[in-house]
Design a protein that fits this description.
By secondary structure, this protein is α+β, with helices and mostly antiparallel strands. The chain folds into 2 domains: 244 residues, Bira Bifunctional Protein, Domain 2 (BirA Bifunctional Protein, domain 2); 87 residues, Rossmann fold (3-Layer(aba) Sandwich), CATH 3.40.50.800. Helix content is 37%, strand content 20%. The strands form 3 sheets. It has an 8-stranded mixed beta sheet with strand order 1-5-6-11-10-9-7-8, sandwiched between helices. It has a 5-stranded mixed beta sheet with strand order 13-12-14-15-16, sandwiched between helices. A 3-stranded antiparallel beta sheet has the order 2-4-3. Strand 12, helix 13 and strand 13 form a beta-alpha-beta unit. Helix 2 runs antiparallel to helix 6 and helix 6 packs parallel to helix 10. The radius of gyration is 28 Å and the shape is elongated. The structure holds adenosine monophosphate. Adenosine monophosphate (AMP) binds next to strand 6, strand 10, strand 11 and helix 12.
Amino acid sequence: MSKAESKAPKATEIRAIKGTRDLVAPEVLLFQEVEAQAREVFRRYGFEEIRTPILEPTELFARAVGEETDIVGKEMFTFLDRDERPICLRPEATASVARAYVEHRLWERPGTTKLYYQGPMFRRERPQKGRYRQFSQIGAEVLGSGLPQVDYELLEMLWTLLRACGLGDAELLLNSIGCEADRRRYTEALRAALRPDIERMCADCRRRYERNPLRVLDCKVEADQPIIAALPTMLDYLDEPCRAHFSAVRTMLDEQGLPYRLAPRLVRGLDYYRRTAFEFVHGALGAQNALLGGGRYDGLAQALGAPAQYSEGIGFALGEDRFVIAMQAAGRASPPRGIAAYIAALGPELLPRALRLARELREAGLAVEVGDAQRKLARQLELAARTGARSAVILGPDEVAREEATLRELGTGNQRAVALAALAGELAQPAKAKP
Ligand code: AMP
């Protein structure tokens, strides 16, 4: 730092809130790509977009996600609004979609309700790589059908999306967590199996043992793992309808050749899950290895006021931030900025012509930058190269008088005269020639 700089009074720097991030290129371009791929794949599977508010009544998540979950119990950004009502920044969006489904009686529309969303979620977790307090999710929900085929098609859609993003090497972990009755029996079995060892386990597990023994299966403490590995699994406690449902989903995956690994200890973080539960994990992610997670939540919509016959549902949410980390690790390059031309006018009197040309080219669909016409040509060409533009369009007084410009390829330095009227066509060609 120079002396002059160190003496200058320093403005207090305002920084982004812990666990939140600013996303700029090249990273943001990969976010855009995930979103574009998701929209395209979801369209083919008949999903329509829903946009729900980021602010929701706190009670929605307490009721739909469950007071005992980490998300609601510890991680929500919740506060009293000026009218003293508790509102929060949504920690997830399945509850919001289910609320909207009930609020607008969406089941009255023809066909199964298939909705997708994209947007920021907020959880006050301890930030680390792949875990933020504001992060982006893309998710989809199918409401009003309990068919195993729906579970299968959702998983197939996810495989398609992952492959489109270059993440076909992800792994699908699949489990069934049964219905409420199955889980009650399983919970009792877990308590019984844990009883002799619970005093040796971590403090979290001791608390979970009392409140929700299923959560013990989520424990990451090394010393507890041998005890957890020996616990009974949910799959042994499924009743006949749940067993048949799970077996039908697995048969379809096998028939269609889509890979998965049975993960009998996979329990999802939200209380409303029933039957099929799944996660896609990826090796490039490290500790936070879940790219996405989801499952069936029959009964959630009913808990929020839908008639029982319309309250079956299944969905997933994917973490865009983690998709981008995995895509970067897989060497997926961000698409280039794709500026077709940098217009270098030689003198301020030519600026109006340069601006008009830029506008015409932009109307023709080309990305164009206009240089500072007061600068020398050499300097403008340097700046042009730094923007990554493919070509420079040089406007000098003589050329403009002839309704021409010099088109210079910045990669090779080759240049030639082109009629202004023909420029849009000439500039579009290299882009078209690209695969
Ligand atoms: P969940 O809503 O907890 O089932 O999470 C679904 C997906 O969202 C996860 O698999 C992650 O990819 C992503 N996710 C969840 N929490 C975070 C977080 N704090 N930061 C970044 N991504 C997250």
